[in-house]
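Re: the pair you flagged

First of the two:
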Amino acid sequence: MARSVFGEAVRGASHIRNGKECQDSLKIVEKGDNTVILAVADGHGSDACPYSKTGSDIAVNVFCRIMNDYLDTYAGQPEMLMTFLKREGDTKIAQEIDAEWKRRVWKRHGAGKREIPVNGDGEADRDAVYKMYGSTLIGLVITELFLFAFQLGDGDIMEVSPQGVHNVIEADKLLGIETHSLSRSESWKKAVTCVRRQDEARKLPVMYMLSSDGMANSYKDDDAFQKTCSDYYELLKEHGAKAVSRKLRDWLSETSKLGCGDDITALFAYITE
């Protein structure tokens, strides 16, 4: 099998008009055993979250570091790792991501010599600091044996193949602009995970796409969004990953301009014979 991995994070049309930076972050880790780790995070970008770009950057790095460590620990034992993730993905893994994100945020805030709010008891208000860096997080680990998907907050992890378009993971979506966040106390309790064994009889090519909510929100409904996922799949089949990756930034910028105006990140893994 051959695999191409690429992605872009673009500044939303409304953020350009308002002079705001892109709040999204993405990260790719490709390992030598046909394993890849993908992560996308979306900083909240509100006035209450002035450092959310830093928060999203920390989020993707934390996910990739933790998952890479587990892959190394269970090197040569993929069945054991798959079993562990099924049992502990939405508890132990989610707790580690939550705790490590908050540890790094606190350290970064202190290193930046930024003001630390105090609570009613006159003590450092850590929760108030975490809120300043608020971010969502979605991640996907693709191995030859299994998929592991992680989601905390909004965004989408999609799979497109000859069998059609499917959500890899069904997350708890809130109404309006509300979303679950790494900045919340015990955020790990809102994480949703999925472990799925790779079907040896699956038909290729297959495309996985991780996208921040600015992507889906730029279309009128889920059907229109899934149609766009299929369009990207057909473009990859017809023109190849290099051609699509060269045009991706322009396409995402146009999507934001014609759609919701939010930042958009799209991260692809395309697997062929």
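Second of the two:
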Amino acid sequence: MPLFNGIKVFSGNAHPALTRDICSYLDIKPARNEVFKFSNDETFVRVLENIREEDVFLVQPISKPVNEHLMELWIMIDAARRASAGRITAVIPYYAYGRTDKKDQPRVAITARLVADFITAAGADRVLTMNLHAGQIQGFFNIPLDELDATDLIAEQFRLKNLEDLIVVAPDVGAAKMARDMADRLNCPMAIIEKQRIGNSDTVKATNVIGDVKNKIALILDGEIDTGGSVSAAAKALTTHGAKKVYCGVVHPILSGDAHKTLANSVLNETVVTDTLPIPKEKLFPGLQVVSVASLLGEAIRRIHNGMSVGAMFERKELNR
């Protein structure tokens, strides 16, 4: 017997299209709520239907404006708790502030931990997220957290392209494990680019390529694209070292500022991203392919609701829908 009356999936203002796609996978309608700001810039949330003892899922990637969408999420959690929800799961496809996961400079905050504390304090019972910037963020929560991996979705897109002489490239040492996993999936070698970040700015310099990319098709794999500077510099370094084509696969398309122009004007042949974050129409560009994570999140929600293993989704690729 189910532990709760049923599933209710709500959306904040960050990415309602993704919520609709998740609900389509689950064959349910999005639950009704209203989330808006008063003239004094304060956020208001109201649940528009009965959720007493229901299994509630609140879908809200922490996209731009980051702080506004964070506040929406916290208030949505509090509203659901005060409406006597049976269980509240914060579905956060993109977890912002993930880069500040440690004290790497004197007198700085560990903001990723602070955000985790606020989510817990607001009243969330568990968290569902995707491809965290750093694995230790899981330990910042004292409530259950499920981290999904979109790498298989990206890998499948490149399997379909039937690319020969493929090599997976990590744009920096930090992305090496993710690149290794992708290389194993595609049964190909990997390389790593050494890069240097200048201070706290978004300016990067690719200094060296570790591995043989000459006459190969390179696939740069990373967790997120922000300004596009790192990926563009990596792609240029790869072509300089003899790569005949360069592709890019990224989970989270932040696309800050003129990132879309930077990528469009780079040597990249194609960039594959997921829809964990909304991409405004004006930031779509030729060579950009968007893969949906709705079925992945929807299947995880179904399993959480039914008390089934989420990890089993990745053991034998049980997700076939």
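Residues 52 and 171 are 47 Å apart (CA to CA).

-B.
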